[in-house]
Design brief:
Number of domains: 2
Distance between the termini: 23 Å
Shape: globular
Largest sheet: 10 strands, mixed
Radius of gyration: 23 Å
Bound molecules: GDP-alpha-D-glucose
Low-confidence stretches: none
Helix content: 40-55%
Number of helices: 16
Structural class: alpha/beta
CATH topology of the largest domain: Rossmann fold
Mean pLDDT: 94
Oligomer: single chain
Number of strands: 16
Length: 461
């Protein structure tokens, strides 16, 4: 196999024990091929020159880590302005939250050109390049413009919205055209792939040539769905370790007379947290038997706090949780335990296992790995129930969950009640089916199938 070069906005250090499944899976392949992981170092140079940045190259065993500094102006326009101020909201169907400013687009292009320039210097002719996510959509086009003839694949971790939504981005043609510089483009779901197909046929008069091949702008790109998974075995091993067992024991002990529900999310407007909290209030209103017994543990890990929309969602959430606790709570029982902090990864499986129900109810999500982690962490003899939004990519694969429309407060509350009352046999059946599926389509399957398809693909110049 060729040497693998992974490019992502941030590097996840595969040596760190806290690294998630993605870093582990990519780390393994990188180690096997003596590969390179290239990305932003996380450092912002206050008085640096736009379009310039120092590259730090270090060795972690057989893996080369190449980390690029960005100057403040570039970082602001590329990361905060364009990637998180335009692409993230629009791709999550939130045109109302997008701020289009031409300066931000300029910064986005400049940083992608900088990535391309620095990366070119490290490449060997046979390298297989795998670029990740919305921060770097035009990177292959920039590399091609500099003469790069390598095989290049792209994976979009977030959803691709329908054509009518995409077309609201002032530079949408340029952005989507850039996807044709790749040999392979991977999406999370069949729905995303369908949106791509509609868009390129309508806006770029692309033709389908062969199975999942699209031809436009004198290039052919292969596009397919590769739903990302988790490292099930690794997560289950983590669940057997001391920290997770202790978390399980103390949580169970503290809430011995309660039914626990759990939510674990980055504090992001796409995750539907206020809608979830309102559905929980509806549960307490409609089904009063849950008062004094059901407790929702909501972990909302801090995220992108420099973007205004994130500060707004935080305030909304705090006020909602406060009002429900004020209306329903008493000295013996508080309906919601809300934590605005990151819980150590080692404790997560214990927390998931101590809970009877998980609420994974994003308004829109590329996949959602929490849904899969919750299933992996359950006791097979007495598993908890997953309540999952139909708008999470995971819903395409996880039909045995209780699928809900998170905008439907009443319907979601009913599904939560159903989950809390589900008989053991039904819980076991649903859980076994879900576990088998996430085992089959785990993160190693994802990595392998994407790279094999990329190796076999070749775009025509
Ligand atoms: C993007 C896409 C897609 C969360 N809070 C804590 C914590 N987490 C961990 C979870 C899980 C990960 O973060 C979140 O993954 P998600 O998939 O839910 O969401 P995004 O961060 O939005 O990721 C998403 C994913 O990329 C992969 O392609 O599924 O759709 O949006 O692993 O456990 N981890 C710890 N403490 C926390 O408080 N340790």
């Amino acid at each position: 196999m060729s040497r693998l070069v992974v490019v992502s906005n941030r590097l996840a250090d595969p040596r760190k024990p806290a690294a998630g499944g993605l870093a582990v899976a990519l780390g393994e392949t990188l180690k096997r091929t003596g590969g390179v992981w290239f990305g932003w170092s996380g450092k912002v140079v206050e008085d640096g020159t736009p379009g310039e940045g120092a590259l730090h190259v270090s060795q972690a065993g057989s893996v080369t880590l190449a980390e690029l500094d960005l100057c403040a102006e570039d970082h602001d326009a590329y990361y905060r302005g364009y990637a998180n101020g335009v692409l993230w909201p629009v791709f999550h169907y939130r045109l109302d939250l997008a701020h289009f400013e031409s300066g931000h687009l300029g910064g986005y292009r400049r940083v992608n050109q900088l990535f391309a320039r620095k990366l070119m210097a490290l490449l060997k002719p046979d390298d297989l390049i795998w670029i990740h996510d919305y921060h770097l959509i035009p990177l292959a086009a920039e590399l091609r413009a500099m003469g790069c003839g390598n095989r290049i694949g792209f994976f979009l971790h977030i959803p691709l919205p329908p054509q009518q939504i995409l077309a609201a981005i002032p530079s949408h043609e340029w952005l989507m055209r850039a996807l044709f510089a790749y040999d392979l483009v991977g999406f999370q779901t069949e729905a995303d792939l369908l949106h791509f197909s509609h868009y390129v046929k309508a806006e770029a008069t692309a033709e389908t040539v062969g199975v999942s091949q699209f031809r436009a702008f004198n290039s052919t790109v292969q596009a397919k769905a590769f739903p990302i998974g988790i490292d099930v075995e690794d997560f289950q091993r983590l669940g057997c370790a001391r920290e997770a067992r202790e978390t399980f024991e103390t949580t169970r002990k503290e809430y011995s007379r309660r039914r626990l529900l759990i939510g674990v999310d980055r504090l992001d407007y796409s995750k539907g947290l206020p809608h979830r909290i309102r559905a929980f209030r509806e549960l307490l209103q409609q089904y009063p038997e849950n008062r004094h017994s059901a407790t929702l543990l909501q972990v909302a890990s801090p995220s992108r706090e420099d973007v205004d929309a994130y500060a707004d969602i935080q305030r909304e959430l705090e006020s909602l949780c406060g009002s429900i606790n004020g209306d329903y709570g008493d000295f013996e029982w508080m309906p919601i335990r809300y934590m605005h902090r990151t819980v150590a990864r080692k404790r997560l499986p214990g927390l998931y296992r101590a809970c009877a129900v998980a609420l994974v109810t994003p308004l829109r999500d590329g996949m959602n790995l929490v849904a899969k982690e919750f299933v992996a962490a359950q006791d097979e003899e007495d598993p908890g129930v997953l309540v999952l939004s139909r708008f999470a990519g995971a819903a395409e694969q996880m039909k045995e969950a209780l699928l809900v429309n998170p905008y439907d407060t009443h319907g979601t509350a009913q599904a939560i009640q159903h989950a809390l009352q589900m008989p053991l046999e039904e819980r076991k059946e649903r859980h076994a089916a879900l576990l088998a599926r996430i085992r089959e389509f785990d993160v190693h399957w994802w990595c392998r199938s994407f790279l094999q398809t990329l190796e076999q693909s070749r775009s025509e110049a």
